Amino acid sequence: MKSKYIKLRYQKASKNVFKKKGTESLNFGLSILKVILSFLVVCVHNFNKKTTTNEYILNFTKERYLHVPSFFIMSFYFMSKHFLPIDFKMFIKRLIRLLIPYIIWPIFFWKLNQYLNRHYHMKLPDTYEVLKQQLLLANKYMHPLWFQLNLIAMTIAFFIIIFIFRKHSLFILQVLLLLSYYLQYSKYNYNNFFRRNPYYNVISIKSIPESIPFAVTGFTLGYYKVLDIIQKHKIKTFVLSYLTYKIIEDYNVLTPIRNVIYTGVKLNVQSICLIFIFSLFPSYLVTNNLIRKLLIILTNYTGGIYYLHVPIKMYLNYYSEDIKKGNFLGVIKTYVFIYFICAIGMLILGKTPFKYLFY
C-alpha cells in the first residue's frame, strides 16, 4: 500500500509541475543528465585542462565529449513519437523551434559585434561575409551551431525517409547507420571526399557521417520505447549499463578514430549507457517542490547554454581573467552568467515563440 501511495503521490506532483505527460517530461534523472551535459558543453569550448592539476576536475571534464552524442540520442528518441506515425504539424513545429535560435542569435550577435567595434574599438567578427558563412555553414563566431544545423538537416531527412518508405523506414535508417560507420572506420569520407572538397574544414559538413549514428540510435530506441521497457528491469539495466561503460572506458574498447572527436562506436555506446543509468533515477524521491521547480528551470535553459556559451565567452574574455585563461572557475562563471541571461530572456519573451531562443 505504501509503495502505491508513493507512486500515486509522485504522479500527481509530476503532473502539477510539468503540466504534460510522457517519459521525457516526468523523468528527473534525464533532467539531471541534461544539466550536467550542458555544463560539459561549456567545458568543451571554455576549459583549458592545463590550468589545473585537480584530479576530480580532470576526471569530470574528460567526459565532456559525451554531450553531443547524448543530446542527439535524446533529441531523436523523443522525436520518434511524432514521426511514427507521421505528424506533419509536429514536424513543422520542431523545425520552427530549431530554426528560430539558429537564425536569430547569429544575426543578433553580428549586430552587437558591429556596435561594439564601432563604439568600443573591439576586434569582433562583423562583416556580411562572416554572417553569411555563419548562417549557411555555422562555422564562424557561433561555430557550435553546427550541431543545430545537423539537427535541422537530419530532422528533414528523417521525415522524408519515413514519409517515402513508411514501414521500411527503420530498415533504411539502419543501413544509413552502417554506411556512416563504414565511412568513418574506412576513413573514406576524410581521405577521399572531404579533402577534395573546399569546405573540408567546415565541421557542420564534416560531422554529418559522425552524427547520423547518434540520430538513428535515438530514433530506434524511441521506436521500441526502450526507456519505458527498462523501467521494468531497473537493477539488471543499471548493472549492465555501468559495467559496459566502465569496460569501454577503462580497457579502451571500441577505440574511436584518432583526430576525429565524435566518431566511432565508443561514444555511441557510452552515451546509451549514460542515458539508461540516469533514466532509472527514482523520480518519486524528489518530493521537494522547490527542487523540482529548480530542476525544471535548469533543464529548460540547456538550449540557451548551448547557443550562448561561445559568444558570451568572447565578450567576457575582456572582463574576466579566469574566463580568458579557461580555468574551471571561469567555466562556472560563464555557465551561471548564461543562466542569468536565459532567466531574464524567458521573463520577457516566455509567452512568445522567441522563448525557443533560450531552451
Outline of the structure:
By secondary structure, the chain is mainly alpha-helical. Helices cover 73% and strands 0% of the residues.
Task: Give me the secondary-structure topology.
Elements: H1 2-18, H2 23-26, H3 28-46, H4 55-61, H5 67-83, H6 88-120, H7 128-137, H8 146-165, H9 169-186, H10 188-193, H11 203-206, H12 208-223, H13 226-229, H14 234-250, H15 265-279, H16 289-300, H17 302-316, H18 321-325, H19 328-349
Q: What does it look like?
A:
The chain has 359 residues and is mainly alpha-helical. The longest helix has 33 residues. The N terminus is likely disordered.
Name the poorly predicted regions: 1-25
User: Rg from C-alpha positions?
Assistant: 21 Å
Query: What's the number of helices?
Result: 19
What fraction of residues sit in β-strands? under 5%
- How confident is the prediction overall: mean pLDDT? 83
Q: Biggest sheet, open or closed, and with what strands and sense?
A: none
**Count of distinct strands:** 0
What is the share of helical residues? over 70%
Distance between the termini: 39 Å
Question: SSE order, as H and E?
Answer: HHHHHHHHHHHHHHHHHHH
Would you tell me the structural class of the helices and strands?
mainly alpha
Indicate the overall shape: globular
